[in-house]
Amino acid sequence: MDYVVRATAAKGQVRAFAVDLTETVREAAKLHDLFPLASAALGRTMVAAVMIAADMKSADNSVSIIIKGGGPLGNIIVTAKANGTVKGYVDNPYVDLPLNKYGKLDVRAGVGIDGMLTVIKDLGLKEPYAGQIELVSGEIAEDLAHYFWSSEQQPSVIALGVLVNPDSTIRAAGGYIVQPLPGADDQIIDKLEKVVGQAAPITTMIDQGMRPEDVLDTILGDMDLRLNDRLDYKFLCDCSRERLEGLVLSLGKQEIEDIIKKEGKAEMICHYCSSKYLFGRDDLNRLLDLAK
Ligand SMILES: [Zn+2]
Fold first, then answer.
1. How many A from CA of 278 to the centre of ligand 1?
2. What is the pLDDT of residue 70?
3. How far is the CA of 79 from the centre of ligand 1 (A)?
4. Where in the chain are the domains?
5. 246 CA distance to ligand 1 centroid (A)?
6. Helices 186-198 and 212-220 meet at what angle, rounded to 10?
7. Superfamily of the domain at 2-235
8. CATH architecture, domain defined by 241-290
9. Neighbours of ion ligand 1 (CB under 5 A)
10. Which pLDDT belongs to residue 186?
11. If you measure from the C-alpha of residue 271 to the centroid of ligand 1, how many angstroms do you get, rounded to a whole number?
């Protein structure tokens, strides 16, 4: 089972999160039939979202990350809850681009850099909290670090990675977030930059069999690392036939009438998990009566 670990270090001056999300990203790739580039972009966003959600207080709190970069992948939307579930999708899963100059999947070119990253946190209050930045990199980790800095005044070191096999299956996915808290010694920040700069890529660490605890130990092991807790995560969508009925209703009376006349049925697909819901003539007639 995939899980996030939460930790502190340097006598509480640093907090940290790490996750191995390999199985969850594998499930997303399977459900959405993702090409490698889409797996990398959606997977990185999911890895980030679960670490943010794992820090939320109550089980029904959630965080959504919405990336609209103007690239060929289209929009990327992920929602993770503090209850250990995450769901998400990318508009165009079948995008294939040349590798970048480092021989890696060119996430930046797929996502685009002409757009926004939005983070919406639903903490069960009247209004959700929303923060937004212009994309600075399109590689997602840097963009998210920029978001933390400009929206939450929180300096962060963020690594997000997805390693895809030649046959498009997912080999490893995971990441970490390390954040010096307000008042942390400059020395600690310097040291963090140094150890993170020397660390192996996150996908290499996970591919070598390192657990999230081991990843944090590699980075913060000699800084009085204290592991706090772990939270299991899996891909789970909360869609239902009732929710998709709402989608049919939102088409409006005229459109539903047209569908009944022309097709006699409608197949609605949940964006988040690609589940299909079939509505036959009787269903559509019933919904037509409800539609405005
Ligand atoms: Zn769904």
1. 14
2. 97
3. 12
4. 2-235, 241-290
5. 13
6. 120
7. Hsp33 domain (3.55.30.10)
8. Alpha-Beta Complex (3.90)
9. 237, 239, 270, 272-273, 275
10. 86
11. 6
CA of 155 to the centre of ligand 1 (A): 34
Query: How confident is the model over 208-239, as pLDDT tens digits?
Result: 999 999 999 999 999 999 999 999 999 999 99
